Structures are given as structure tokens and as C-alpha cells.
Amino acid sequence: MKKLSVVYYTDERYIVPTCTSALSLIEHNSNVYIHFWLFCDDFEEWKQESKCVVEALKQKESCKVNIMATQSLKEKCDFYKLPIYKGAQGVFLKMFMCDLIPDMGCNILFLDSDTLVTDSLEELAEYVFPEGCSCAAMIDTMNNKYMKRMLHMNESSTFFCQATFLVNPILWKSLDCDKKIDMWIKKIAQTGRTSEVMQCIVNEQGVLSKALEKQCAILPAKYMVLPGNSVLQHKYRRLLFGMQVSDYYLDKDIDTANENPAIVHYMHYIVPKPWKHDGLNKYEERWTNIYIRVKGHEIFPITQWKMNCEEKIKRQLLLRSQFLFAMMGHLFLKKNLKKSISYCDSLDIFN
User: Fold this and answer.
1) Which of 115, 332, 91 is nearest to 227 (CA)?
2) Is 97 left (phi over 0), alpha (psi -120 to 50) or beta?
3) Which one in 79, 142, 241, 295 has a CA-CA gap of 20 to 30 Å to 99?
4) Which of 222, 227, 223, 320 is nearest to 277 (CA)?
């Protein structure tokens, strides 16, 4: 039987979405033995109801669930002076996971907690990495000239999103990926402005994209379908993020992926997370169908999305004119990216 190690970072707040993602993976991969590595922040302090959600997952067949303490991750993050992001340091786990879990003789897949597996991942379990590559990830919607300019990356390089991040641990070590990541984090830390720089470069995404430039393969579009992409027309998505056609997946590949996704990433982009009900999210029901079987509704209920004033204005603009919605977003994004470029250049980090 094929094997795959799957890594999640979670805390008590997000254990229900995390287990929803994990259960969806199990249900679509009966031919793959899954080694789950759940890094659970302060697990010993969780309420019994939250622990029961994890215990139910551990009873599933064709998988082994390993509960991992986060102390080793915290020590690494503190050593590099990495900031707290959204209440935790979990976003940085993917940079260190090859050191923090044992090599099970298979590929390692990191998934964000707000993902849902909707098809077989056998191809990822069997994935053969191109020569010179030890990892594979998704093209980010921020893969534009501004982000590459900020990081001083080659124009032909790719700014990656690692919500779906596949690694071969043997190749990772043989290609000295840890040393390259260590070098760039230390360069950032030497500025004394780690938190500010990380915010500019989208945290671990910038570090990994820069450190592993030309060493990270591109996974097909079906492994990270964004619900917002099915709402916004292709040309307006490119306008919004300042992308050329060659900067992202081909339109036809996105359309195919939208119809037959393997992994849905519920990033808050145009539509909210699936536990905030919104009629524009065509992938919400897929998530809810798995969520119901996790039986965590008492500790993590689904609610109606209540838009604030800014979100209401954006939604009205989107419904009236996708062009104006994209143009306004583009101008805002461009302004912030140019400020970030100037800031990073002033610190002389990425030259």
C-alpha cells in the first residue's frame, strides 16, 4: 500500500476544521496509508470535547494519528525570533517539519487547516520530483512582478503558496534546504525587524520562495482550488493581483480544476471560510458534508457571515462591476507592495 505523511498545525480553536480536512483525506484515499502528524498547541490544556474530536479521528482505519507537542517548533521560532501570526507560529512549521517528524520512507504533505480533500492524492504519494527539486507547491496569486522585485527573485521564478506543500525528506536534506532557509531567516533577523519583514513577504511563503528558488516544482491547479476563483472572471483576477497570463495557471486548467478539484483551499478571498455561510461560495456544501461527520458542531458552530462595512462595500462593488472591484483592489495592493519593496530595500536583505 502507498504511504503518505500528512502534517497539520492546529490549536483548540481550529481542531474541528483540521479534523474535517483530515477526515476528507481519509475518505478519498482508501488506497493510501496515511501517517498524520497533528501539531496541537497546548493539547494537554484542551477541553475534553475538543480532545474527543481528535480521538474519533484516531479510530479510523488506514491511518495512524500522531499527536505532536509544539514545544520543539516554538523553540525553533523563538531561536529565529519569528513572530506570532494569527495567534500562533504554526505557519512556520512547514519550514522545519523535516526536522520535527521521523522519516517514514514516504513523501510529506503539509496541509493548511482550511483545506478539504475532494479526490485521491495517490499522485502526491507517488510523486517523483524533478531533478534538483525536493519540494512542490502551488503558484500563489501574488506571483507578480512586485513580489519578485521585493525578494530580488528572477522574473522566471515562482512565488509559491504552501497551503499544499509536498516534500521528499531525503531530497530535502541532500539539497541542504535547511541550511538555505537558516541563512535567509538569519539575514532577516539581523535587521532587528523580523516581524515587519515577514509581514511584507507573507511570512513563510517569502522565505521558502526565496530560499528554494528554482528548487520547488509546481503542482497542478487541482491541488489548490480557491472558491473565490470561481466567482471572479480570469481577466479580472489577473487585474486584481497584477499578474500576466504567464504568472499563473492557464485559464483552461483553472476551469478544469474548479470542476474537478483534488484539494479546495478555503482562503478568505472574495468569499469567507465555509463555516461562515455565504451563498456565493459554491464549495461550501462540500465542506459542510464532511464537517457534520466530525461531530464538532457544539464547539465549532457554523454561522451566517456578517459582513462589516468594508466587506459590504466590496461585495456590492463585485456584484455591480467586476472590473471596478478588481481595479480598486489592484490599486490598493500595488500601493502596499511598493511600500513593502521600499522598506525591504532599505534594509538590504535580499540582494
Assistant:
1) 115
2) alpha
3) 142
4) 227
- The ranges assigned to domains in the chain are 2-347
Strand partners for 3: 33
CA distance 241 to 143: 8
The CB-side HSE value for 308 (13 A sphere, CA atoms) comes to 1
Q: Which of 142, 132, 130 is nearest to 219 (CA)?
A: 130
- The CA radius of gyration of the chain, in Å to the nearest whole number, is 20
Q: What is the DSSP letter of 221?
A: G
The answer to whether the beta carbons of residues 157 and 214 sit under 8 Å apart is: yes
- CATH architecture of the domain with residue range 2-347: Alpha-Beta Complex (3.90)
Distance separating alpha carbons of residues 14 and 86, to the nearest angstrom:
12
Q: Give the pTM.
A: 0.96
Amino acid at 256: T
> CA nearest 163: which of 127, 199, 113?
113
pLDDT tens for 289-341 read: 999 999 899 999 999 999 999 999 999 999 999 999 999 999 999 999 999 99
